[in-house]
Amino acid sequence: MAPLIMDVNVSVGTIFSIIKAPEGVENPTAADFMQPGTMVAEIHRILTRGGIFIYPMDSKMKAAGKTGKLRLLYEANPMGFIVEQAGGMATTAYSRIMELQPTDLHQRVPVVMGSRNEVELVTGYHNV
């Protein structure tokens, strides 16, 4: 049986993204796994089934001087607006995305959005 790993964008609810290594691959590397990970598709799944989308800040981003991966004006704000209108929540893990004032046209931010109770739980971990 091929090994299974959980996707980085794993849902905290009852829906999990599982990635399976291709058949016949022994000792797979990250390049051997296919990641279904478009934000729009994941948000659609979250809106219809619940869950959470997470694209957090990591140590590699900090070391490179980056502030996040997704663009505030083109990705985080539009999806955050839709999620909040559906009763969910969208944050950077520290503050509400819709309250951020852009400082740059291509400003990037970390993203945590989805079911309100799950986003509050993740945000609570970051604000300890």
From TrEMBL:
Signal peptide: none annotated. It comes from the Bacteria. Residues 37-126 form the Fructose-1-6-bisphosphatase class 1 C-terminal domain. Pathway: Carbohydrate biosynthesis. InterPro entries: FBPase_C_dom, FBPase_class-1, Fructose_bisphosphatase_AS. This is Fructose-1-6-bisphosphatase class 1 C-terminal domain-containing protein. It comes from Thiothrix winogradskyi.
